[in-house]
Specification:
Largest sheet: 2 strands, antiparallel
Strand content: under 5%
Distance between the termini: 35 Å
Helix content: 55-70%
Shape: globular
Number of strands: 2
Number of helices: 4
Order of helices and strands: HEHHEH
Radius of gyration: 21 Å
Strand order of the largest sheet: 1-2
Length: 162
Protein backbone atom coordinates (compact mmCIF):
# COMPACT_ATOMS: atom_id res chain seq x y z
CA UNK A 1 0.00 0.00 0.00
CA UNK A 2 1.28 3.46 -0.85
CA UNK A 3 1.50 5.71 2.24
CA UNK A 4 2.80 8.85 0.56
CA UNK A 5 -0.13 11.34 0.55
CA UNK A 6 1.16 13.11 -2.59
CA UNK A 7 1.41 9.93 -4.65
CA UNK A 8 -1.34 8.62 -6.92
CA UNK A 9 -3.78 6.12 -5.44
CA UNK A 10 -3.02 2.48 -6.26
CA UNK A 11 -6.16 2.08 -8.40
CA UNK A 12 -5.03 4.97 -10.63
CA UNK A 13 -2.21 2.73 -11.83
CA UNK A 14 -4.63 -0.02 -12.82
CA UNK A 15 -5.77 -0.21 -16.44
CA UNK A 16 -9.26 1.17 -16.98
CA UNK A 17 -10.50 -2.30 -17.91
CA UNK A 18 -9.56 -3.60 -14.43
CA UNK A 19 -11.87 -1.17 -12.64
CA UNK A 20 -15.38 -2.55 -12.18
CA UNK A 21 -17.97 -0.51 -14.10
CA UNK A 22 -20.68 1.41 -12.26
CA UNK A 23 -24.37 0.64 -12.75
CA UNK A 24 -24.70 3.74 -14.95
CA UNK A 25 -21.82 2.51 -17.10
CA UNK A 26 -23.39 -0.95 -17.39
CA UNK A 27 -26.73 0.58 -18.41
CA UNK A 28 -25.00 2.82 -20.96
CA UNK A 29 -23.16 -0.15 -22.47
CA UNK A 30 -26.37 -2.20 -22.57
CA UNK A 31 -28.24 0.44 -24.56
CA UNK A 32 -25.22 1.42 -26.65
CA UNK A 33 -24.74 -2.21 -27.67
CA UNK A 34 -28.47 -2.72 -28.31
CA UNK A 35 -28.59 0.36 -30.56
CA UNK A 36 -25.57 -0.86 -32.53
CA UNK A 37 -27.15 -4.31 -32.93
CA UNK A 38 -30.40 -2.69 -34.09
CA UNK A 39 -28.42 -0.51 -36.51
CA UNK A 40 -26.72 -3.55 -38.04
CA UNK A 41 -29.99 -5.50 -38.35
CA UNK A 42 -31.81 -2.51 -39.80
CA UNK A 43 -29.10 -1.90 -42.39
CA UNK A 44 -28.96 -5.59 -43.33
CA UNK A 45 -32.67 -5.36 -44.12
CA UNK A 46 -32.06 -2.19 -46.12
CA UNK A 47 -29.33 -3.92 -48.10
CA UNK A 48 -30.98 -7.31 -48.66
CA UNK A 49 -34.71 -6.56 -48.73
CA UNK A 50 -36.70 -4.42 -51.09
CA UNK A 51 -39.29 -3.88 -48.32
CA UNK A 52 -37.10 -1.65 -46.11
CA UNK A 53 -35.74 1.63 -47.43
CA UNK A 54 -33.73 4.22 -45.52
CA UNK A 55 -32.21 7.22 -47.25
CA UNK A 56 -28.88 7.40 -45.38
CA UNK A 57 -26.72 5.83 -42.70
CA UNK A 58 -27.33 8.82 -40.42
CA UNK A 59 -31.09 8.35 -40.72
CA UNK A 60 -30.72 4.62 -40.01
CA UNK A 61 -28.69 5.41 -36.89
CA UNK A 62 -31.34 7.84 -35.66
CA UNK A 63 -34.06 5.30 -36.52
CA UNK A 64 -32.21 2.62 -34.53
CA UNK A 65 -32.08 4.95 -31.50
CA UNK A 66 -35.78 5.76 -31.83
CA UNK A 67 -36.66 2.07 -32.25
CA UNK A 68 -34.65 1.14 -29.15
CA UNK A 69 -36.37 3.83 -27.05
CA UNK A 70 -39.83 2.85 -28.28
CA UNK A 71 -39.19 -0.86 -27.76
CA UNK A 72 -38.03 -0.26 -24.18
CA UNK A 73 -41.10 1.90 -23.53
CA UNK A 74 -43.32 -0.85 -24.96
CA UNK A 75 -41.75 -3.45 -22.70
CA UNK A 76 -42.13 -1.15 -19.68
CA UNK A 77 -45.83 -0.61 -20.44
CA UNK A 78 -46.33 -4.34 -20.96
CA UNK A 79 -44.70 -5.07 -17.58
CA UNK A 80 -46.95 -2.51 -15.87
CA UNK A 81 -50.04 -4.08 -17.43
CA UNK A 82 -48.85 -7.56 -16.46
CA UNK A 83 -48.18 -6.44 -12.87
CA UNK A 84 -51.66 -4.94 -12.66
CA UNK A 85 -53.34 -8.22 -13.61
CA UNK A 86 -50.85 -10.43 -11.73
CA UNK A 87 -51.86 -8.63 -8.51
CA UNK A 88 -55.38 -10.02 -8.97
CA UNK A 89 -56.30 -13.66 -8.67
CA UNK A 90 -58.53 -15.74 -10.87
CA UNK A 91 -58.55 -17.25 -14.31
CA UNK A 92 -60.23 -14.27 -15.95
CA UNK A 93 -57.49 -11.91 -14.70
CA UNK A 94 -54.89 -14.32 -16.02
CA UNK A 95 -56.64 -14.27 -19.42
CA UNK A 96 -56.78 -10.45 -19.29
CA UNK A 97 -53.06 -10.30 -18.46
CA UNK A 98 -52.16 -12.25 -21.60
CA UNK A 99 -54.73 -10.49 -23.76
CA UNK A 100 -53.61 -7.00 -22.77
CA UNK A 101 -49.94 -7.96 -23.00
CA UNK A 102 -50.57 -9.12 -26.57
CA UNK A 103 -52.58 -5.98 -27.28
CA UNK A 104 -49.79 -3.71 -26.00
CA UNK A 105 -47.06 -5.63 -27.83
CA UNK A 106 -48.98 -5.83 -31.11
CA UNK A 107 -50.53 -2.37 -30.94
CA UNK A 108 -47.19 -0.78 -30.19
CA UNK A 109 -45.99 -1.68 -33.69
CA UNK A 110 -48.56 0.73 -35.15
CA UNK A 111 -47.35 3.43 -32.76
CA UNK A 112 -43.73 2.70 -33.70
CA UNK A 113 -44.52 2.85 -37.42
CA UNK A 114 -46.30 6.19 -36.97
CA UNK A 115 -43.44 7.54 -34.82
CA UNK A 116 -40.93 6.61 -37.53
CA UNK A 117 -43.12 8.28 -40.16
CA UNK A 118 -43.52 11.38 -37.99
CA UNK A 119 -39.78 11.61 -37.24
CA UNK A 120 -38.39 10.75 -40.68
CA UNK A 121 -41.20 11.01 -43.21
CA UNK A 122 -40.38 9.20 -46.44
CA UNK A 123 -36.72 8.81 -45.44
CA UNK A 124 -37.66 5.57 -43.62
CA UNK A 125 -40.08 3.21 -45.37
CA UNK A 126 -41.40 -0.22 -44.52
CA UNK A 127 -43.34 -1.62 -47.48
CA UNK A 128 -45.42 -4.73 -47.79
CA UNK A 129 -48.54 -6.22 -46.24
CA UNK A 130 -50.79 -3.96 -44.18
CA UNK A 131 -48.89 -0.78 -45.07
CA UNK A 132 -45.55 -2.21 -43.97
CA UNK A 133 -46.58 -3.33 -40.48
CA UNK A 134 -45.70 -6.98 -41.21
CA UNK A 135 -42.26 -5.94 -42.46
CA UNK A 136 -41.74 -3.78 -39.36
CA UNK A 137 -42.70 -6.71 -37.12
CA UNK A 138 -40.21 -8.97 -38.93
CA UNK A 139 -37.46 -6.36 -38.53
CA UNK A 140 -38.24 -5.87 -34.82
CA UNK A 141 -38.31 -9.62 -34.17
CA UNK A 142 -34.95 -9.94 -35.95
CA UNK A 143 -33.56 -7.13 -33.77
CA UNK A 144 -34.78 -8.77 -30.57
CA UNK A 145 -33.42 -12.18 -31.62
CA UNK A 146 -30.04 -10.64 -32.50
CA UNK A 147 -29.92 -8.75 -29.17
CA UNK A 148 -30.76 -11.93 -27.25
CA UNK A 149 -28.14 -13.95 -29.16
CA UNK A 150 -25.44 -11.38 -28.35
CA UNK A 151 -26.47 -11.28 -24.67
CA UNK A 152 -26.32 -15.09 -24.45
CA UNK A 153 -22.91 -15.16 -26.13
CA UNK A 154 -21.63 -12.46 -23.77
CA UNK A 155 -22.86 -14.39 -20.72
CA UNK A 156 -21.39 -17.62 -22.04
CA UNK A 157 -18.00 -15.94 -22.45
CA UNK A 158 -18.16 -14.80 -18.83
CA UNK A 159 -19.09 -18.26 -17.54
CA UNK A 160 -16.15 -19.40 -15.43
CA UNK A 161 -17.13 -23.07 -15.69
CA UNK A 162 -16.89 -23.23 -19.51
Amino acid sequence: MNTDSTAMPDDALMPASAIAPSNKQRLFMRYFTAILIDLVVLNLFVEYSDKVRIDSFTISLLAAVLLQVLLKLTIAVEHKVAAFFNARSGGFNRFLRFFFAWLVLFGSKFVILEALTFAFGDQVRFDGRFNGIVTLIVVIVAMLVAEEAIVRLYRKLGDRTG
